[in-house]
Amino acid sequence: MVDFGGWDMPVQYAGIIQEHTAVRRAVGVFDVSHMGEIEIAGPEAARLTDFVTTNAVSRLKIGQAQYSGLLYGHGGFVDDVLVHKVADDHYFICVNASNQEKDYAHIASVQGFDAEVEFASGRYAQLAIQGPKAIDVLQQLTPAELADIRYYWFVDDEVSNTPARIARTGYTGEDGFEIYIAPEEAERIWHEVLRAGREYGIQPCGLGARNTLRLEAKMALYGHEIHASITPFEADLAWIVKMDKGDFIGRAALAAQKEKGVRRKLIGFEMCGRGIARDGYEVWVDGVPAGWVTSGSPAPTLNKNIGLCYLPVELAEPDRKIQVMCRNSPVEAVTVATPFYKRAK
Amino acid sequence: MYPDNFRYTKEHEWVLVEGDTGTVGITDHAQAELGDIVYVDYKLGRDTLKVGDQVKQGESFGSVESVKAVSDIYSPVSGEVAEINTSLADAPEKLNQDPHGAAWLVKIKLSNPDEAKNLLDASAYQTYIGAEK
């Protein structure tokens, strides 16, 4: 067990590769109750949510979710978040565990909107059921018609006779669901999910597999690909920024960066030589230090060693030879297009 | 689980002393903490470790890398490298399966057999890893 932002969390149950493979081929379940929740409600909830996030809240329909960014005025990330539209005057935001107090303070400090911001983490536990068989497992426990929930949509219904928010979202690159339930029901439902999944070979999964799965799908991890000194344009996340939606925190800085040109960019790579890149390792190009690794790992699905790194924008394109300094030894690698893994639809 | 005739380090290596030879490996606790092991690298400084090299107690002679993390291996004893378990290069998963047996790392011709006495015995090591959790 590791201490993760004050939570005692398992890195692995059966082993990272076995857990990873279960999610790609069948189904796995993650206890992600450490994630934080913030609710924004009131007549101007939509306007406030739009002002503090980068994506276009106005495009959300009730029951829809979107990936988005919370930025500082200087354009760097406070956090990356999932915004769910519960009602016209009610938004539910899922945030990273280690950032939740900071996120809440950031949003609550914004003045001039007729809306209440609530730190709601204590009211929710979260389980992620992920993999091609996730729908078959969860369907046994809920009257909600899961096939009717589209990707990045959610319903408020029941799981195992207790109220649950059921979202077709995830952090693995597979189909699956994230369910938000009362904390006192979490342990019981965890076991119910495992029981329902037994015939599909369900695997309890820890933080280790969560990391390898998200990395193969090239999903950003706060503290690695994104943090206070990184903007969405640098992190290859321009798609979550809607510059034309009206003003929002960080917009002016992003406009200035766009005007001047982005100087560094996130790019994927594969190791060619023997070695595994790790967070913080230097990346060299043509014999000089040029950037740094943000995440790196063996990719169990691809049977390669992969990673993400920041490079000057003129170097951040696929098929460039780079060297990753693995414990003071340069190891050959090549930049590649991402995601590394994309599931067949 | 932890053989009584082994001696252990706080860095989670073990050594079995037989005559003037010490067989060295990593402990079951180490392999479990690391998880799926994918590389074993034998290195003394920047050079590949060779039979005949001298290693000192506490000196790193390589690293073990898992999906999750990379970890140095420190020699529990001083002496001359007599044998290297090269079979682990192609089958690093053996370190997860049999860390106290077939997946030994090196054999060392001891220059100071008394050194092993300052290492932990099996019960002290188990107390140590129990307390570490």
Descriptive overview:
The complex is a heterodimer of chains A (345) and B (133). Chain A is α+β, with helices and mostly antiparallel strands and 345 residues long. Chain A folds into two domains: 2-214, 2-Layer Sandwich (Gyrase A, domain 2), CATH 3.30.1360; 263-340, Elongation Factor Tu (Ef-tu), domain 3. Helices cover 20% and strands 34% of the residues of chain A. In chain A, strand 11 (162-167) and strand 12 (176-181) form a beta hairpin. In chain A, helix 1 packs across helix 6 (207-216). The longest helix of chain A has 15 residues, at 183-197. The two termini of chain A are 35 Å apart. Chain B is an alpha+beta fold and 133 residues long. Chain B has one domain (6-132): OB fold (Dihydrolipoamide Acetyltransferase, E2P) (Beta Barrel), CATH 2.40.50.100. In chain B, 17% of the residues lie in helices and 38% in strands. Chain B contains three helices and ten strands; from the N terminus they run βββαββββββαβα. In chain B, the strands form two sheets. Chain B has a six-stranded antiparallel sheet. Chain B has a four-stranded antiparallel sheet with strand order 5-4-7-8. Chain B is globular. Chain A binds chain B through residues 1, 11-12, 15-17, 208, 212, 274-276, 278, 297-298, 300, 327-329, and chain B through 35-36, 38-39, 46, 63, 65-70, 96, 133.
